[in-house]
Amino acid sequence: MDLQTTIYLVVGASFALYIGIAFWARAGSTSEFYVAGGGVGPRLNGMATAADWMSAASFISMAGLISNMGYGGGLFLMGWTGGYVLLALLLAPYLRKFGKFTVPQFIGDRFYSKSASTVAVLCLLTASLTYVIGQMTGVGVAFSRFLGVSSETGIYVGMGIVFMYAVLGGMKGITYTQVAQYCVLIFAYTVPAIFISMHLTGNPIPQLGLGSNLVGQDISLLQKLDTIVVELGFGQYTTTTAGSTLNMFVYTMSLMIGTAGLPHVIMRFFTVPTVAAARSSAGWALVFIAILYTTAPAVAGMAKYNLISTVNTAVATNGDMYAVESSLEVAKQPDWMNRWAKTGLLKFEDKNGDGRIQYYNDKTKNPDVIAKAEAAGWKGNELSVNADIIVLANPEIALLPNWVIALVAAGGLAAALSTAAGLLLAISSAISHDLVKGVFNPNISEKGELMAGKIAMAVSIVVAGYLGLNPPGFAAGTVALAFGIAASSLFPAIMMGIFSKKMNKEGAIAGMLSGLFITLFYVFAHKGLFFIKGTEYLDLIGGPNPFFGITPEAFGAIGALVNFGVAFLVDKFTKEPPEHIQHLVEAVRTPRGAKAVDGSHAH
Asked: Could you tell me where the DSSP H helices lie in 387-479?
């Protein structure tokens, strides 16, 4: 069976499974639509949480970013994993005990203000819509390559699939669909990694294979990779960082607290029956997430090695790393390169007309590399590879069986669709539950609220699809900005709501608005989205990364500090919260049945 037919069968079967589950688990009440009736077991909820959290960014982009950046790409692993631990330990159990199943509802009740709830909805919509753009773009990338359609058509198909199981099933349908999607995506991620690790190092465990010696060679994969990339003019794979050490630290913190503030993940902890089950499901989710996250560095390193080996046959033969010019002739280009070139995500051009692809770093300052390249007639780098294709193309680069390639296609789509569904439900519930019922029409019936939720979900899918088709400049190619927005606006408000009984509504509202504004301003001004008549770009902040070299994607942590600072400052000059709110905060933090310690001995 040829590759395209195999892909159609595998992807089609996975879609049929998702839609079948949605029909089986249709939501019949608002409780089932928002929190799956609160009856999901910890293991299943942990699996669904893992699928909800591991988006297209985790499945498709993360290993590609690590592959491109090397050691510096580890900030995504540290930030996202650390953020999940932060969420599981510091936020989820308390929010679950509070009993409000949306973040704006928690903020509105804790800060005794509909205005606070409305501001939280604004922050949630900004973060979630920015994030969902990346998911829809990921759907388009996967469809455009594997189903042989344009990325636009791919986004339309993805919108249709999500509509069928998200609008029909609500959280109940999404939960059980995400369990299936987790099984598909984790199988799709690990199976190719096992194949490739076995082929390159003889070790079937990718996590160990990354540090093992290459088959038939007395050198480890990482040592060989370091040698290759340095001699091609790139930084050392195992030590290169992303910008300054300060930027790497702040970037990691932004991803970490942004993860803890993302509403679609927080909502998952309300689908279990008890607080203990919420803690248990958090632990299970971490186990399920770890399977992919510990595999990602191996996938990244092996993909980088395979890519260079494909372009540069000398890597696999005589070891002369400078001999990129002796690579495969254009007429003999591997099929995978020609297939991916059609998507526009991989480009190669024979600039000097010698019939070969030369792959050096255009920006290298190393005179030895420049001299070698120029001696071979080099006229600039002839290959560019988008980070988003590394995982999806890896099985094709390694010449794995067709069914493995098809499985990866299904996994990439599962990752993007599962997170898109969770985000859309968070957006839908914020609109229907927190705005329609909470602010505009408190007396709406359950049936009316359920209908409002489904309409909001449908509208959200259309908006998400439009933004995926026409991504704004500041959001194209990254979801890091969504984490920055959540970090600067929602996370501090949730933390202060749980751990500061004296924080009042004025402080929380001022903090959220200031954190959101300063982060968006830094991002927009940096990306050149302010225009004035007759001028293409109005430089409002003094050039790129003016604040101690911190990039826009990393600025969320700075926005969070502004949020905390403004909130506590305003709190000092305004009235403290009512007594019953302070008692409520203490009750949420105190374990049930706990007694005050008075120093006396029990008898």
From this structure: 390-397, 402-429, 446-469
One-letter amino acid of 116: A
**What long-range pairs does 310-313 form, CB within 8 A, spacing at least 24?**
310/334, 310/337, 310/397, 311/357, 311/359, 311/383, 312/359
pLDDT tens digits, 386-422: 777 777 788 887 878 888 888 888 887 777 777 777 7
* Residue 213: CB atoms within 10 Å: 17
Q: What is the pTM of this model?
A: 0.81
Strand 346-348 to 383-385 pairing: antiparallel
Rounded to whole angstroms, what are the CA distances from 47 to 59, 295, 304, 401? 15, 17, 30, 28
**What is the C-alpha to C-alpha distance for residues 60 and 78, in angstroms, rounded to an integer?**
17
Q: Cα–Cα–Cα angle for 340, 292, 274, nearest 5°?
A: 135
Q: Are 408 and 48 in contact (CB under 8 A)?
A: no
Q: Which position has the token pair 């908006």?
A: 463
pLDDT digits (tens, 9 = 90+) for 511-534: 999 999 999 888 777 554 444 334
The CA angle 337-342-344, to the nearest 5 degrees, is 95
The one-letter code for the residue type at 586 is E
